[in-house]
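QA checklist item 7 of 12: single-chain prediction sanity check.
[x] sequence parsed
[x] length recorded as 103
[x] structure emitted
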Amino acid sequence: MLSKDEALAAAKSFLDGTYANDPKGWVMVVVAERSYRYRDGWIAYFNTQEGIDSGNHWVGPISKILIVPDEGSPYFSPTHATSEQFREFCETGIWPVALRMPR
């Protein structure tokens, strides 16, 4: 089981690697106060320093949530779900009814 510090360090390393060659030159910041533990790992919220400084949420990537599983590599949350729907999935392991494929 990862500690919060370990999860946030893994998230920061993932972001720095992912955006290392981005022409916009964003500086990625993991926001510890908005990151939290879920059943199988951590949900890490991030932003760009430029977005934080300007107060403009639209500066930087649109999706600002990373999943850091206890076992495995960080990855971006799916963008087809709202934050609340994805949080529900993380807590229960079951996709909300609105996101299930029709049978």
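[x] summary fact logged: The chain has one domain: 4-77.
[ ] second reviewer sign-off
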